[in-house]
Design goal:
The protein is mainly α. It has seven helices and no strands. It has one domain. Helix content is 75%, strand content 0%. Helix 5 packs antiparallel against helix 6. The radius of gyration is 25 Å and the shape is elongated. The N and C termini lie far apart (72 Å).
Length: 194
């Protein structure tokens, strides 16, 4: 009788657990399209918005600072330096956020969808860890020392982020739109496209 009671309690506990798990509304479905779209958006934001070499060079270029210090008063120099520091901190924060989005995608969904080799996956994992650490360190360094204090670290972080983007692009290549060239010559004699 005691064994039957124990089995009934275990069964009731498992049933309640399954009921709670089934009723959760925010549980992502495996292969959910939203995760792919978010990863694609993060990849595009990094490639086109945050990592172009001319943008990174422009944010951390000492030439602007040297011009302002040579041509302006001390108050304007302080204001310029404070604004450039704020912009550089925002840049590092945005890069870190988008890298975290890509890392979340790779941790949860990439292994089911992409055909990356084990070596590439390990390299990507190492790049993610090092890049997040570099962003944290760079943010602290920029906060304490200013936007012109670590140009080599900025270059390393941007280069590592570009590597992560290239590998992530392989994982997300199936989301790229198919070129419409194949339909160009498949029209009917009246000009209607098929």
């Amino acid at each position: 009788m005691i064994a039957l009671t124990i089995y009934l309690l275990i069964g009731a506990g498992l049933f309640l657990f399954l009921l709670v798990m089934a009723r959760r509304k925010n549980t992502p479905v495996e292969g959910c399209g939203e995760e792919f779209v978010q990863a694609r958006r993060a990849l595009r934001t990094l490639q086109l918005g945050l990592l172009p070499a001319n943008l990174v060079e422009r944010i951390f270029d000492r030439g602007d600072f040297e011009y302002v210090t040579a041509e302006s008063s001390r108050e304007i120099c302080k204001l310029f330096l404070a604004e450039r520091k704020r912009i550089s901190l925002i840049w590092v924060g945005r890069v870190r956020g988008e890298i975290r989005n890509l890392m979340h995608f790779h941790l949860g969904y990439s292994r089911f969808q992409s055909k990356l080799s084990l070596r590439t996956e390990l390299r990507l994992a190492l790049d993610f860890v090092l890049l997040l650490f570099a962003c944290r360190t760079l943010r602290l360094w920029l906060y304490l020392r200013g936007p012109y204090s670590a140009p080599a670290m900025v270059g390393i972080a941007a280069g590592a982020a570009a590597r992560v983007c290239r590998i992530s692009e392989q994982s997300l290549e199936f989301l790229n739109p198919v070129a419409g060239d194949s339909f160009q010559n498949d029209s009917t004699p009246g000009g209607a496209a098929i």
